[in-house]
Amino acid sequence: MKRIEADYFETSLSTAKGPNGNLYAVPLYPDFPTMLYRKDLVEKAGYDPDGENWATNSIRWKQFSRVTRDVLDRNKNIPYGFTFQASQYEGLSCCDFNEFMTSWGGAYFGGRKYLFGPVGKRPITVNTQPTIDSLRMIRTFMNGQNDEVALDGYAGGIVPRAVLSWIEDTSLGPFLNGNAVMHRNWPYAILSAGDKSAFGTDLGVMPIPYAVTEQQVKYPGTGGPTAALGGWHVAVNPHTKN
């Protein structure tokens, strides 16, 4: 246990511990989401992701939506702008929605200090304006400015309603087939999309975009570029005889 605590990724390790500090699993590896995009099409549209250092400097959701819309308009054969995972499963609440919400300064329970509890005694903040604005953004992405709660300045018609039934692999398929401009997924998708048989050097990868800065938010640990922490632990059932 001393070796694990000394050498392993601290944030991931904390998710394998109980409130008493006891370690209940051995971390296997962490996972971090990224935004994959058709770099070749973005550059042909006149944008400069290398010059603006998209690979490490996250861009704003507003710019993201406009770039995506522009590329779609220039490529009529591509049906989807932005694909992600929005089926009714744990990946939506823990990850995709959480990233949208947090990048707007929203939080389920008042920010990072309440991440692990105390359960039942945390402030409920998921109904505050930042969270509402993040939902308005996604509705704008999907329905455009005709939506009654659309956000001004955000481009729409870039997200298909099909995302409401997609998880990781089903959302990745359209991107690999050349039917999407932007795609949110985990690092395994980079290997698939970056292979020479797929997009190779025409693939771009950047951090998840954001809406407001860390200086503009109320809840600590929100705002700015945000990414849900994924990954895997190995645990042994204490009741097993095997």
If you had to describe this structure to a student in words, what would you say it looks like?
With 242 residues, this protein is α+β, with helices and mostly antiparallel strands. 31% of the residues lie in helices and 12% in strands. The protein has eight helices and six strands, in the order H-H-E-E-H-H-E-H-H-H-E-H-E-E. The chain has helices at residues 2-7, 10-14, 39-44, 61-74, 90-103, 129-143, 168-176, 188-194, and strands spanning 26-31, 34-38, 80-83, 180-185, 203-206, 230-234. Strands 3-4-2-5 form a four-stranded mixed β-sheet. Helix 5 (90-103) crosses helix 6 (129-143). The mean pLDDT is 95.
Helix-strand topology string: HHEEHHEHHHEHEE
CATH class of the largest domain: Alpha Beta
Largest sheet: 4 strands, mixed
Q: Would you tell me which CATH topology of the largest domain applies?
A: D-Maltodextrin-Binding Protein, domain 2
How many β-strand runs? 6
**CATH H-tier superfamily of the largest domain:** Periplasmic binding protein-like II
Overall pLDDT: 95
Percent of residues in beta strands? 5-15%
Strands in their spatial order, largest beta sheet: 3-4-2-5
Helix content: 25-40%
What is the CATH architecture descriptor of the largest domain? Answer: 3-Layer(aba) Sandwich
Low-confidence runs:
none
Rg over CA atoms, rounded to whole Å, is 19 Å
Q: In the residues, how many domains can be counted?
A: 2
Shape: globular
